[in-house]
Amino acid sequence: MKRNEKTLTKVEFMVMSILWDINHAACGRDILERWEEPKPTYTTIATYLKILYEKGFVDFFKKEGEGKTQWYVAKVTRQEYTRMTMESVKRNFFGGSLKSMFSYFIKEEKLTPDDIEELMRMTHDTRDITE
Asked: Any idea what DSSP says for residue 27?
C-alpha cells in the first residue's frame, strides 16, 4: 500500500467493517444486504470494493459456475488497521510520543485517578499474557 492509501474514508471503513463482521468471502450483494438504511446502490458498493482492492485492503476471486460475481476477502484485519491508524495518530499528532498521546487522552477524557489505576492494571495484565 502506498503511504497515503493506508487510511480509509468513512464509507470505505463501513464497507470494511461489514467485511470484517462477515469474516469470510463476501460479494457486493452480501455487503449491501447488511448495510443500514438508507442503502447505497449496488454499483456504489462495487465502486468502493474496487477502490479498496486498489488500495490493497481487499482481494477478490470468482467462483466457478457463478458467472461474474466477485467474492471479496479482507487482506487487512480490523486489528491491523486499528494498529496502523493509532500509529499514524501517535506519529502525526503527538510527535511519536506515546506519553504525550496518553496524557492528551487522560486530560481530554477527564479520567479519574480510579480510571487511570484501572488502565494501569489492564496494561500489567496484558503484559503478563504476552510474556
From this structure: -
